Amino acid sequence: MMSDDAIYEGRWWHFIDDGRIQCDLCPRDCRLHEGQRGACFVRLRENDRMVLSTYGRSSGFCIDPIEKKPLNHFYPGSSVLSFGTAGCNLACKFCQNWDISKSRDMDRLMDQASPEAIADVAAQEHCRSVAFTYNDPVIFAEYAMDVADACHARGIQTVAVTAGFMHAQPRREFYAKMDAANVDLKAFTEDFYFKVTGSHLRPVLDTLVYLRHETRVWFEITTLLIPGYNDADAEITAMSRWIMKEIGPDVPLHFSAFHPDHKMPDVPATPPATLVRARDIALKEGLHHVYTGNVHHEAGDTTYCPGCQAPLIVRDWYQIHDYRLTPDGRCPDCGTAVAGRFGERAGNFGRKRIPIAIGRDAWT
Question: Which of 340, 344, 303 is nearest to 73 (CA)?
Fold first, then answer.
């Protein structure tokens, strides 16, 4: 059994000339004196080493539909065991999980579990995958990677839900352990990234290009459209064209609706018409699979054949009403292959959300 106060040294850091240590995980490059924490708050200098304070500690576990991540082309209808920790390496003013991602209260981390215990529970609950979500797994990468190893040993796949803001070396090591990802492309201007998220656009674009051209990770993209900030036609067009050129037409793109939260309580919620308009723009630019999220829009939930446009996976929110893909992932009408990871049939987990308790002594 591992003790609650076990110390876990981070993988990516080095000493610099002035005696501080620099965290090399993400482009923030936090430089720390003894006892200081990085911007994410969970990586700190202790006894002249970088320590991850949230290893093995979670804000809670829940079984979700995979479409909630959102992933529409990764074993549709299957269930995923989801969990996060605390902290974040971005500072999004619109964060919709801010009570977790910006928490500095370690007592919020209620559940403790070893990687093996998480994999065991996922197997017992018949989850096809485990998702690192709610806050960005980049900042608890060592824990996520160890969980991924334990899951793979049990035949369970792993999903990263992330902003994609990390350096090249840890990115290679991290995604070598992941089977799928949903990457938040929060906007398509540096001005938005710098002023609204406290980060930068270029490293996120680099992550997307890396995933497409140097890995076999299945990934999808999500953009939360915020009225007056990143929802202009010109920006959506530019983003869609970049995706077409650099990644290709088959990556699914999800436009999701904002609701007032955190430091942007006075910004109005995204009208459904904005998501529909964005979807139309992206489709006209040549993207094959464009979805709308956080609104009820059956056309925006449905997967269509990129060849003949026949509806192949008809969804209502997270419930699959019709699944017509062949066992090898093709349209039964015209034979066009649909990009993604598909089983012989869709799962039937539906819209359920099931909280799971993993005890504080669940260490092996």
Answer: 340
| Domains, the chain | 13-52 (no CATH), 58-356 (3.20.20.70)
Q: Please tell me the distance from the alpha carbon of residue 306 to that of residue 329, in angstroms, as a whole number.
A: 12
DSSP labels, 241-285: HHHHHHT-TTS-EEEEE---BTTBTTSPPPPHHHHHHHHHHHHHT
Over 142-201, what HEC string results?
Answer: HHHHHHHHHHHHCCCEEEEEECCCCCHHHHHHHHCCCCEEEEECCCCCHHHHHHHHCCCC
pLDDT mean values, one per 10 residues, the chain (364 residues) = 61 97 98 96 95 91 97 98 94 77 52 90 97 96 98 98 98 98 98 97 98 98 98 98 98 95 88 97 98 94 98 94 95 98 92 84 46
Alpha carbon distances (Å) from 127 to 16, 65, 180: 44, 10, 15
**Cα→Cα distances 249→37, 236, 245, 246, 290, Å:** 41, 15, 8, 9, 10
- Asked if 298 and 262 touch (Cβ cutoff 8 Å), the reply is no
Which pTM value belongs to this model?
A: 0.94
Paired strand residues for 292:
255
